[in-house]
Design goal:
This protein has one domain (about 1-240): Rossmann fold (3-Layer(aba) Sandwich), CATH 3.40.50.620. About 50% of the residues lie in helices and about 15% in strands. The protein has 10 helices and 7 strands. The chain has helices at about 1-15, 30-45, 70-80, 90-95, 105-120, 130-145, 175-185, 200-215, 220-230, 230-235; strands at about 20-25, 50-60, 80-85, 125, 155-160, 165, 235-240. Strands 3-2-1-4-6-5-7 form a 7-stranded mixed β-sheet, sandwiched between helices. The longest helix has 18 residues, at about 105-120. It is globular and about 45 Å long.
């Protein structure tokens, strides 16, 4: 936890992600990343100079045999209010529209549902569990498939809903998150999506892993390029969503 907290706090401080009195909704997919973020922010809440409160939100996409009961138990232990919001995302994407490439639409619908729930719970910020590799993968997805230099920012303002999205784990390598989740037996909820592991993002994971075999500083160099070369990275984004 000390290592996790040190990187999370550095990101929070570097980009002034948390202000006094913030009420932050942690988006919980049930994966290791969001659960680690929940634990880290719950611990940070104990001593961070700017006092803030937390809640947690999961979107149930409509897949059968998916339970967030153990996540609720974790939230109870951490004293974090928890909401599971039922949605029809699975039905819309796979049953009605029968999307062949569903990931973009799914992500948009999940973002909208999470942000709506956060506003309903009186939150002014939403925290997402994007880690360091997510930053790099998003950058290369934009470069290779859109032909532009782009990536999400550490902090984004959504003017239509008047909330900020923060990403406190951008300095955390995925390997450290895996280790923390394993050692602490976090209640990971298996992703039932049929596209899991078969997306363009997985291709980027493989690409980065290959480059790391050639140059062990590859990720460090790319992260530096993103931080210094993308104006929105430091300034943040203002999106109407």
């Amino acid at each position: 936890m000390k290592r996790i907290l040190s990187r999370v706090r550095r990101a929070v401080d570097d980009y002034q992600m948390i202000q006094e009195g913030d009420r932050i909704a942690v988006g919980i997919s049930g994966g290791k990343d969001s659960l680690t973020l929940l634990c880290a922010l719950a611990e940070l809440r104990r001593f961070y100079p700017n006092r803030f409160s937390l809640c947690a939100i999961s979107l149930h996409m409509g897949f059968e045999d998916v339970s967030f009961d153990k996540v609720k138990d974790l939230c109870d232990r951490l004293e974090v209010p928890y909401l599971v919001k039922m949605t029809d995302i699975k039905e819309v994407i796979f049953d009605v529209r029968k999307e062949k490439n569903p990931c973009s639409l799914c992500a948009k619908m999940r973002r909208g549902g999470l942000n709506d729930a956060a506003v309903e719970m009186g939150c002014n910020k939403v925290a997402l569990g994007h880690h360091n590799e997510d930053v790099l993968e998003t950058f290369f997805l934009s470069l290779f498939y859109e032909g532009r230099l782009n990536c999400f920012s550490p902090i984004t303002y959504l003017s239509r809903r008047d909330i900020h999205v923060i990403r406190p784990m951008i300095y955390l390598p995925e390997g450290e998150i895996k280790g923390f989740a394993y050692r602490n037996e976090l209640p990971v909820v298996k992703n039932p999506c049929p596209m899991d592991g078969a997306s363009k993002r997985q291709d980027m994971k493989d690409f980065i892993a290959e480059k790391m075999q050639e140059d062990r500083f590859f990720k460090t160099k790319m992260m530096h390029a993103i931080q210094t070369g993308l104006p929105d990275w430091k300034l943040g984004k203002d999106e109407s969503e």
